[in-house]
């Protein structure tokens, strides 16, 4: 018989790699905020409750249209909470030219045939300016998939389902049940792959009409829920085409990272407040002259691309129902998201919070697939290894999931992770590269330039020195940099908080 999702808990969220959700088996629903009856769906309610809204006999599914999902904890709210985007400054700076940093005294009111409008010195105050422009939102590189949720027990695992996997890069779930989301090509007519082809067709294939089809290539990318007209993705109709050329708000379309101006400001000390008429002389100091005004400003700083705090995992797509028992085919090391406070069977599922657990006994299967066989020692694992008897579970606390970027040094892609070799280990004894490595949030300069709305003089003239009168700003040829200011302490996209769990053992039941 085909495999069931009997060991996958009701309330599980996974991704689905096709536009046509009518291909979903009974017992699965799109995460679109729909209301369900508590009485008729007791198991689902027990897992997610009112975390996503509702009251009395009606409760809501999570609405993940246009959203990213992020693990709870480490400052991230309880599961089911909508998360507003934030944009940290990440050492972003505005660079201005000729800004005065010193001044000189000139005779007040000295007027003559060669007088000039000179810029007064701003001695005590600073002036703040709002940064505008930038992109319509802050987000990481991403691909559109549907997010779906299991609503009933004993139902089929969908072909085309996409799951994160916590095993090290030396291990993978069983083929042909699970195929790595690496863009590989398969024969569409072969029995092992025809069911998957019937679901995803050529959407991820760059040569449409070929006898082969390709699975999604998620290398280095984040998954975003298909917006479906909700409006959480302001650029839903401007996304980059899927590999088969499909454009618009459809599964498989891609999106470059974005950086909004958010609430960025820059504060400039001694910004020229006004002008006065000063005498021009053959000898004196070079002062700012009110002429040749410009609004030129350049920007620097930031990281290579905007991204949330994240952990690196491999993604696999479900390609073939199997007849294994008692397993439903969902692999040990597979990760699920739950949008509520319910807890799946503790005999096979553990919270992905980085806890150190024994290598032997109940966690032995997970230990076996998180070790690095390529390591020169026996103490390196994907997620951490505090001593010879224990290892760390995946730590997805407060993190989004990013597909592992396995490209070699020097091989770059618009949607990859340019910082894949400068990530960090999740815990001591963990790997700093590949699956299990983690990355702090960062803000990149936007695709559409920032702007600061002001102008200032750039001309110089020699003025007479004097002992009384007004303070005039001296001319400054150096570039001065002014750091962006914001209340945000991290960069993160629009999203919904979830609890992540990892399957650590075979067997178990609902």
TrEMBL record:
<feature type="domain" description="Phage tail collar">
    <location>
        <begin position="11"/>
        <end position="69"/>
    </location>
</feature>
<feature type="compositionally biased region" description="Basic and acidic residues">
    <location>
        <begin position="229"/>
        <end position="242"/>
    </location>
</feature>
<dbReference type="InterPro" id="IPR011083">
    <property type="entry name" value="Phage_tail_collar_dom"/>
</dbReference>
<feature type="compositionally biased region" description="Polar residues">
    <location>
        <begin position="437"/>
        <end position="446"/>
    </location>
</feature>
<feature type="domain" description="Phage tail collar">
    <location>
        <begin position="160"/>
        <end position="223"/>
    </location>
</feature>
<feature type="compositionally biased region" description="Low complexity">
    <location>
        <begin position="427"/>
        <end position="436"/>
    </location>
</feature>
<dbReference type="InterPro" id="IPR037053">
    <property type="entry name" value="Phage_tail_collar_dom_sf"/>
</dbReference>
<protein>
    <recommendedName>
        <fullName>Phage tail collar domain-containing protein</fullName>
    </recommendedName>
</protein>
<dbReference type="Pfam" id="PF07484">
    <property type="entry name" value="Collar"/>
</dbReference>
<feature type="region of interest" description="Disordered">
    <location>
        <begin position="427"/>
        <end position="446"/>
    </location>
</feature>
<feature type="region of interest" description="Disordered">
    <location>
        <begin position="229"/>
        <end position="248"/>
    </location>
</feature>
